[in-house]
Structures are given as structure tokens and as C-alpha cells.
Amino acid sequence: MILGPHDLQLSHGWFPPATRRRNLASATLLLAFLSGCQVLSVTKEDAIGPSSNPVTVDNVSKNDRLAKLSAEQHPRILATYGGEYKDAKLERMVAKVVGNLTTVSDNPTHTYRITILNSPNINAFALPGGYLYVTRGLLALANDSAELAAVIAHEMGHVIANHGIERQQREQEAQIAGRVVSEVLQDDSAGREALIRGKLRMAQFSRNQELQADAIGIKMIGEAGYDPFAAARFLQSMASYADFRSVSGATDASLDFLASHPSAPQRIELARGHARRVGAPGVGTTDRDSFLQGIDGILYGDTPEEGFVRGRSFVHPLLGVSFTVPEGFVIDNSADAVMATGPGEVAIRFDGTQVSGNPSMNDYMRSGWVTGLDNASVTATTFNGMPAATAKARADRWEFDIFVVNAGNRIYRFLTAAPAGSAALNPASQTVIQSFRLLTTQEKASIKPLRIRVVTVKPGDTLVSLSNQIMGTDRKLDLFRLINALPPGGTVSVGDKVKIISE
Predict the structure, then answer these.
(1) How many other CB atoms sit within 10 Å of the CB of residue 442?
(2) Which of 192, 220, 338, 462 has its CA 20 to 30 A from that of 60?
(3) 338: which strand partners?
């Protein structure tokens, strides 16, 4: 939840696993019943310039046309991914990896500027002209410098191969072809087939780009002295992460690496094949200790400005509010609201808006932000001494319970949706509403963001005892295995360095 001068924008949070995707139908439909809600950026675009403290091998040439175009996109990328993440120790570690790769690049004179983005999403990408980006979420998932080098080298491969320019040209050609089909062929069967063939060619082109960037990147990390098998390892880690996104700290899957970099088993095997051409398993360095020292203490998941998911509870220390969802629900701290989905296709949405004065809650409920509102159901009430109102709404096969409360200069809104006639609607709605409360000063001060902590395995430590130190999820052992890339049956030994997540 990000604070704005007029509305509250809630962003970057948990995404439900594939087994809960069906429940998102009700959550998505619920979004349609809010209208006129402003969405404010964290930082105004014209106030964000290129990073004043970049991790860079050299400055990007001021006369480079592509660099100029990338610089124009830089503020938009910062706004999308939470701005720049500042950590001098982390930046030095990343800069070392970039420097090692630059020396073995096909164009060692090419300059790169890398920015660490303050996002829990797992992603890295490049813009033509030498702008490279990596999220803190990706850094938290990786386990050594070789894995980081594999990702960065892959993105360098896109730049070296001019994929950004080629893709733009191909998209322009596809758009022209699409207009010809719609205008000349009038979208008949032959026209539809032509469009489908064009889309398939675009998809194949994209896959070919990714495989080419893989080949370039793996060759580079091998020449730089890194373990070339790190690319396949990290592709596997990201695939495992995608299955575990409900505890990843990242809601918008479209912002993740795998959204534009598919990770099919065949691609992982091809990456191993490229690595074998460099050498046998065991060749190259992982530089694990240097990497872990760099990421020790890095922020994990949401920031205080967005609020935190703690199991079934959402807490926002800056707004000073908290609530808990029913058993079996998963919370998503998304770009527009805090969403929770649970059994029986029940969904809960929470957001808020800043107001001035003391508006009537009945009038606010009827002010047009809910479609399908039953005006006769609007009822004024109080909640813990604060003005509030309740109402019902209905649309298609869905029913809604709505609750609004004026807490200070903000109105907070709960919408609970369930299939029409569901007996689960009222219990879910009442559970979350009754749990809503304002935090005390002491509670607000005590809530800290989660961070990656690197610890050394001591005698007597077990997977269970180590994973029990992880905060923010009920699936502690699963998450411990994920962030430490432990295979099924894998364990730890005394003296090993491992990652945990704690305040």
C-alpha cells in the first residue's frame, strides 16, 4: 500500500499459487465494481532522473542515440519497479560481476549502467544503449555470483545481439500486417489465419532471441571464469519460485523474469548443453562467499510504504492499520489493493482513500464507486467509535458485502465477494471486518521489514531449526529450501552459509 496525496495505492505483494488461480476470477470481477479510483505513482515521473548513484563500469556515452532513448525510459522503469534500491555493499558486489563480464564481452568497449531496482519481483532486463536492471528480489533468490553473472550476461547478450531493435522492427511489421488484414481482408477466415501465423512467428522469434541470449551469456560467464552451469541452476530456481509465488513478496507475475523469459525444461537442458561445451561440471568459480556477503541484510518482500503480509494478517505501520483474513485465505498485496482469496471462490478486497472533512458514510457509500449497489441496504453504523457504513451489492452471479469506515482523514473499504447464494459470504466478511483495527504507537514502531540474513550452520542445527527462524510465512521449510536452492533430499552441513528471512 503506497501513500498518495488523494488515494491509497496498494502495491507489490503476494501472488497466489497456481492451485488458487481459479479463485482469482472472483477477485478480478471484484475490481470491476470500483470506479473512479485514482492510481498515483510512487514518484512523479518528471521528478525521477537517471540514477544519481548507479552501479556502473563506465558512463554511458552522451552521444549514443540508443543510450538517449534508454535514458528516456529510465524514469518509467524506476516508477514501475519501486525506484532504485540503495545499498553500497550490494552495489559493489554487483559492479564486480558486471566488470568481470565486460572484459570478456564481444564488445569490451561497450559501456553498461546497471541499476538495482527496489522491487521484490524476480527480474532483470536490458535496454538498448547499455542500461541494465536487476531487482533486489532476484538478488535475494540467487545463491552465488555465478548465478547473478548468468542473468546479467543473458541480458548483455540481448544488447550485444541488438534484440531490442530487432524486436521493435518485427513488432512494427506485425502491426502493419495486422492493419492490412483487417482493412483489406476484412477479417475473414483467411485474414484470421494470417494474423495467427503472424503471432506464431512473433512468438518463435522471441524464443529464438532468448536461446541466443542464453548461448551468448553462458559463453561469457565461462570465459569470465564463472561456473557455466549456474545459468541452468538459476533457471530451475526461478521455475521453483514461480510455483511458490504466494510467499515471494511479488504479486504482478507480468513483472517477473519468467513472464518474458520462458523456463521450459528443454531450455534448462539446452543451457546445460552450452555449459558442457565450456567444461565439465565443477569448472569455474561460484564466488558464493562474496555474493552472500553482498546480499546479507537486503530487504525481502514489501517495504514499510507498502505494508507487510504476515501469514494471514496485513499490517501497515505507516497507516497504522491491520486486519486478518479467515483460515485458508491467501493475501495478495497488489498494485491496486490488498486482495485475499479463499475457498469457495470467496474474495476480499481492501483499499482506502484520503478525504477531508467528515463526510457522511451513507453518502460516500452511494457516491458511485460501487456498481450494482443495493441502495436500500446502505446502513450507517459505528465501528470502535468511528463512523462506518455497510451495504450489499449484486452483479451477474456474484454477491458482495461492503464495509467502509472513516479512520481519521482516511476512508478504508472492504469488499467481500462470493457466488450468489453462497453461505460463505457473511462469515468471511464478518471475520475480516471484525479483525480490522488501528495499531498502537508501540506496535507501529515494532513492525520491521523482512530481510535476508546469512547465517553459518552450527553443530546441532537442522533444516527444521534453521527454517523455523524464517518469518512472514507458514511454509517455513519450503521457503528455506527455495531460497537456498536445496534439491529434494538435500541437507546442510556444519560450516555452510545459508539464507534465512527475518526482521
Answers:
(1) 7
(2) 220
(3) 333, 350
- Give 376's pLDDT tier (boundaries 50, 70, 90): very high
Nearest C-alpha neighbor of 144 from the set 336, 354, 289: 289
Q: What span, in angstroms and rounded, lies between the C-alpha atoms of 118 and 78?
A: 8
Distance, in Å, from the CA atom of 499 to the CA atom of 482, rounded to the nearest integer, reads: 10
Q: Which three cell numbers stand for residue 46?
A: 518528471
pLDDT band at 39 (very low <50, low <70, confident <90, very high): very low
Distances (CA, A) of 219 to 104, 215, 227: 9, 6, 10
pLDDT of residue 334: 65
Question: pLDDT tens digits for 263-301?
Answer: 567 888 888 989 999 989 888 999 999 999 999 999 998
Query: Rounded to whole angstroms, how far apart are CA atoms 169 and 223?
Result: 32
pTM score: 0.69
Q: Helices then strands (H, E): number in the chain?
A: 16, 20
Check pLDDT > 70 for residue 138.
yes
How many Å apart are CA 193 and CA 398, to the nearest integer? 37
Segments in 352-462 forming alpha helices (H): 361-365, 425-435, 441-446
Cβ-contact 303, 296 below 8 angstroms = no
d(C-alpha 249, C-alpha 364), whole Å: 33
CB 447 within 8 A of CB 314: no
Q: Letter for the amino acid at 287?
A: D
Query: Count of alpha carbons within 13 Å of 335, Cβ hemisphere only?
Result: 16
Task: Say how far apart CA 233 and CA 379 lie, in whole Å.
Answer: 57
Residues 131 and 250: beta-carbon distance below 8 Å: no
Cα dihedral across residues 368, 372, 374, 380: positive or negative: negative
The closest of 52, 59, 61, 144 to 97, measured between CA atoms, is 144
Helix axes 230-242, 476-483, angle to 10 degrees: 150
CA pair distance 277, 235, nearest whole angstrom: 18
Would you say 303 and 318 are in contact if contact means Cβ atoms under 8 Å apart?
A: no
- Tens of pLDDT, residues 174-217: 444 444 444 444 445 555 555 444 444 434 446 677 887 888 88
Cα 204 → chain centroid: 26
Q: Which of 5, 82, 86 is nearest to 52 (CA)?
A: 86
CA 228 → CA 77, 106, 274, 469, distances in Å? 30, 17, 8, 32
Distance of CA 389 to the CA centre of its chain: 34
Q: What is the residue-wise DSSP string for 268-283?
A: HHHHHHHHHHH-STT-
Full 3-state SS string of 70-96: HHHHHHHHHHHCCCECCCHHHHHHHHH
Distance CA 374, CA 350 (A): 20
Question: If DSSP codes are grouped into helix, strand and coil, which group holds residue 284?
Answer: coil
Q: What is the mean pLDDT of the chain?
A: 76
